[in-house]
Write a structure and sequence with these properties.
This protein is 59% helix and 16% strand. It is of the alpha+beta class.
Length: 426
């Protein structure tokens, strides 16, 4: 594998690891931040709605007490209780007139109460805005017992009379001598509390708030399902913990089997849980958008890193490649090298040193060639001289051999002549 490829892979892996690590940390940090933000917002909604609920109940108590303290109202009711002052016919008429007055009081309160009624000292409903309720016994009802001494709110309960969830407020009716003569009671219209719980400000598309009683029943309507009040039991983790009289928050499956971020608070004064929830998917939607943005940015960043890594590797591999080619040239006895060294780093210094070395080798080669030429010329001259001397010696030897041959021939001829002379002499 080429060094450029190795460098590119190395830088790409390091960059990808760094980018992925940073992205993961950023994603989880943002997720936690968004979840904490959602929890903080739900907590503020819970506090606000608890405050509104408490204010609403206190306002209704005040409205009921203002009626019970109305001297004209009390005096008219006392007249009805005096059997010696009026005949039965007149008493019936007065009873009907007083019921009308009570209905006027109910109307002036708007829709805060669905029924107002007076319970006499014996515990029977004496007069009611709902005539069908008159005569019913309330002696065992907590609000009647407590209402004989003070203003009292019976917490969320199921009213058999109304056949629906109810909050009943009771306050004593006293005469001028501060003696209790009856109890004024009113069934609060839970539609107002329902509207309070259904108010969606700050809850987005999937958020909702609702109340759950100690028997796990939802006592206000669901935003998504109708007819859940006192018909739907809820056993989510949030409700379970809240009914243990704890306040808290968490991520859990709600009654619709959706994963939600929930905040819950036990309202001891009302004996109910106030739950605020929002789907986790919606609460963390900005994080998902951030995740998509991070993915796109990561792709762009990694592409840029790979591109610049490739270009950077070229700044390393190109000089090395030039040095390699130069080394190959030197190996082929070619010293005509000029490496372009533009950088001032180690590779630039190495390239310049390589150029210097190649130039030195080129000079050494030229010097050596000149020396070789001089030596060759000198040797050639000497060889020529040796050849001339050798020729001279050879020629001399040949001449001597020829002279010797001639001498030998003369000697042989002389010998023959001498022998011939001797024969002649004999």
């Amino acid at each position: 594998m080429k060094i450029g490829t190795k460098l590119l892979i190395f830088f790409s892996v390091i960059a990808i690891i760094a980018v992925l690590f940073t992205s993961i940390v950023l994603f989880f940090t943002a997720s936690n931040a968004m979840q904490e933000r959602a929890i903080a917002q739900l907590e503020s909604i819970v506090v606000l709605k608890e405050s509104h609920l408490t204010s609403f109940i206190e306002e209704e108590i005040g409205d009921l007490e203002s009626i019970a303290l109305d001297d004209l109202f009390v005096n008219e009711y006392k007249i009805m209780l005096d059997d010696h002052l009026i005949h039965q016919y007149e008493k019936t008429q007065l009873h009907n007139e007083f019921r009308k007055r009570l209905n006027v009081k109910l109307t002036t309160m708007g829709q805060d109460f669905i029924e107002l009624y007076i319970i006499n000292f014996d515990g029977h409903v004496h007069i009611s805005t709902d005539q069908n309720q008159e005569g019913k016994i309330k002696t065992k009802d907590e609000y009647f017992i407590k209402g004989l001494t003070q203003s009292f709110v019976q917490k969320f309960h199921y009213s058999l009379t109304l056949r629906q969830p109810a909050i009943t407020i009771a306050t004593p009716i006293k005469d001028s001598k501060n003696n209790v003569i009856a109890v004024l009671a009113g069934n609060v219209n839970l539609r107002e509390i329902n509207n309070l719980m259904q108010e969606r400000h700050g809850l987005g598309e999937t958020g909702e708030t609702y109340l759950v009683n100690s028997f796990n029943y939802m006592i206000t309507d669901s935003r998504f399902e109708k007819g859940y009040a006192l018909k739907k039991t809820i056993y989510t983790e949030g409700v379970k913990d809240c009914l243990n009289k704890n306040n808290g928050f968490g991520v859990y499956d709600n009654y619709r089997d959706n994963v939600v971020i929930g905040v819950y608070k036990w309202l001891s004064e009302h004996n109910v849980c106030l739950i605020a929830e929002i789907d986790q998917e919606e609460a963390l939607r900005p994080v998902k958008d951030l995740r998509n943005t991070i993915i796109i940015l990561n792709f762009v960043i990694m592409s840029l890193i790979i591109f610049f890594g490739y270009m950077f590797s070229k700044t390393i591999t190109n000089p090395i490649l030039e040095l390699t080619n130069a080394a190959d040239q030197i190996a082929k006895d070619d010293f005509d090298i000029n490496i372009k060294a533009q950088s001032n780093d180690e590779l630039g210094k190495l390239s310049r040193s390589f150029n210097t070395m190649a130039n030195d080798l080129q000079k050494s080669k030229l010097n050596l060639e000149e020396i070789v030429r001089d030596r060759t010329k000198e040797l050639t001259k000497k060889i020529t001289q040796l050849e001339k001397f050798h020729k001279y010696v050879v020629d001399r030897e040949l001449k001597m051999l020829e002279q010797k041959k001639k001498i030998k021939e003369l000697t042989s001829q002389l010998k023959k002549e001498n022998d011939k002379k001797k024969k002649n002499t004999i």
